[in-house]
Specification:
Number of domains of chain B: 2
Shape of chain A: flat
Structural class of chain B: alpha+beta
Strand order of the largest sheet of chain B: 2-1-5-3-4
Largest sheet of chain B: 5 strands, mixed
CATH architecture of chain A: Up-down Bundle
Oligomer: heterodimer
CATH class of chain A: Mainly Alpha
Distance between the termini of chain A: 77 Å
Structural class of chain A: mainly alpha
Number of domains of chain A: 1
Order of helices and strands of chain B: HEEHEEHEEEHHHHHHHHH
Radius of gyration of chain B: 25 Å
CATH class of the largest domain in chain B: Mainly Alpha
Largest sheet of chain A: none
Number of strands of chain B: 7
Number of helices of chain B: 12
């Protein structure tokens, strides 16, 4: 029989056990469009951060002279370079458009009013305005990517 | 004559019973119940046990689990009480989504294999039973009671009526339906990565008392949630509101509270505060 103190030590050491951790946001499939939008917002955010670091490195090559700058630019003139740039266009458009939606919702706008919940419960915060916002962000991103692809690939 | 009538009646009853039994038998099917098993205290690794359980149209997951516990393996650990979605004890992950076992019918899942796991983000005590200590700690930190130095209970001789209009009640009524089942806490991705984050349940309670016009601790309530690991860790994934079995909509409460924090939403003058102010206590 364990003492109370031993039990407390045991439970304190197991506090973090069974936490979902990164798995929680890497699997967006279970809870609807708002969770998918949360997942996409994070993924695009991480991607844009990586792009930002690469962009700083790319631009800093300018200090090594014109040849170094041109050599760096050459990397974006390949098919893979174009595909990467199209992804940058798509992610930045989605991240911005969805970010604007979140700026409103996370300050209490466009969510509806609290009231008496009636069965079958339908959360007012996850209303058509949110879903429309997510779809608008997705459509804008797809349109921007198509436009970018047209310029990058048709211009060759 | 009377005896003949009785024989006739008993025959009709028998036919009726047989018909009913065949109806029940046609409704009955067998499902495979996969139950998560782990006893951390004994240091054994986790595994799933599989049970074949007969179910009917109205069988809930809790009924199926209790059948398995009653007839197939009595060592399964489950926590339950009211069996009617009022106590919030039987929360568990059922086929990947946090739900109340008593509130989830096997027929609505529409799959032949039902997997029951303990709620994520809660330490496991045994099998499907989880430890709610942290969860309740966060709840308590929100001071889930009305702050009002002028409440009638202080001086019973000066009893006054505290009028609340239906509109006033509707501001917080939804959030007061919380049964503390922990489903929102286990569905929240921010809770999954930050142990200090209070979680949707506690924050919805903070909103519940903030919105109540009998409460006069507006600023101190905002100060409690306005911390590094507080309300700003919510990223509006909305999963808490999706899984809530009582229609509380914690995501709504959290965003509305944030609106007040950034002063986008105007604070309505609370009756309790104006009373306290008139008595010179604020």
């Amino acid at each position: 029989m364990k003492s109370f103190k031993e039990d407390k030590i045991y439970w304190d050491s197991n506090r973090r056990e069974n936490r979902e951790g990164l798995k929680a946001w890497l699997n967006p499939s279970r809870y609807g469009w708002e969770r998918i939008s949360y997942w996409l917002q994070r993924l695009t955010g991480v991607f844009l951060l990586i792009y930002f670091v690469g962009h700083v490195i790319e631009t800093s090559s300018l200090v090594d002279g014109k040849d170094a700058w041109n050599a760096m630019l050459e990397l974006t003139q390949t098919t893979w370079g174009h595909l990467f740039l199209i992804l940058v266009i798509g992610t930045s458009t989605f991240h911005s458009a969805n970010g604007i939606r979140l700026l409103f919702t996370e300050t209490g706008r466009g969510l509806g009013k609290p009231g008496r919940p009636d069965y079958p419960y339908s959360p007012v915060s996850l209303n058509y305005r949110q879903k429309s916002g997510i779809w608008i962000a997705l459509i804008l991103a797809a349109t921007a990517m198509l436009y970018g692809a047209n310029i990058l690939f048709a211009g060759e | 004559m009377i005896a003949l009538v009785n024989i006739k009646n008993s025959r009709t009853n028998l036919e009726h019973d047989q018909k009913k039994e065949s109806e029940i038998a046609s409704n009955r099917k067998v499902i495979h119940l996969r139950v998560y098993r782990k006893n951390p205290k004994q240091g054994k690794s986790s595994h799933f046990d599989k049970f074949e359980v007969p179910v009917q149209r109205w069988t809930t997951v809790l009924d199926a689990l209790l059948h398995a516990k009653g007839y197939l393996d009595n060592s399964i650990a489950i926590r339950y009480s009211c069996r009617m979605a009022s106590c919030g004890s039987c929360g568990m992950k059922i086929n990947g989504i946090p739900r109340l076992a008593c509130y989830t019918k096997v027929s609505e899942i529409d799959e032949n294999i039902i997997t029951c796991e303990p709620l994520p983000n809660f330490p496991i005590i045994r099998d499907l039973v989880t430890d709610f200590s942290d969860f309740f700690e966060h709840h308590r930190a929100m001071e889930p009671f009305i702050h009002n130095p002028n409440a009638d209970i202080v001086d019973k001789n000066s009893l006054t009526e505290f009028i609340q209009s239906p509109k006033d009640v509707e501001r917080y009524l939804q959030s007061s339906y919380c049964i503390k089942c922990g489903l929102c806490y286990s569905a929240c991705p921010s809770v999954g990565t930050d142990t200090k984050f209070p979680g949707p349940q506690a924050l919805a309670q903070a909103y519940r008392y903030f919105a109540d016009n009998r409460d006069d601790a507006t600023q101190s309530r905002l100060d409690i949630v306005d911390t590094k690991h507080g309300i700003w860790r919510c990223h509006f994934a909305g999963s808490c509101s999706v899984v809530c079995p009582k229609g509380v909509d914690p995501a709504l409460g959290i965003q509305l509270l944030r609106g007040h924090l950034v002063s986008f939403s105007k604070n309505d003058k609370k009756l309790a505060e104006s009373r306290t102010r008139s008595l010179g206590k604020i």
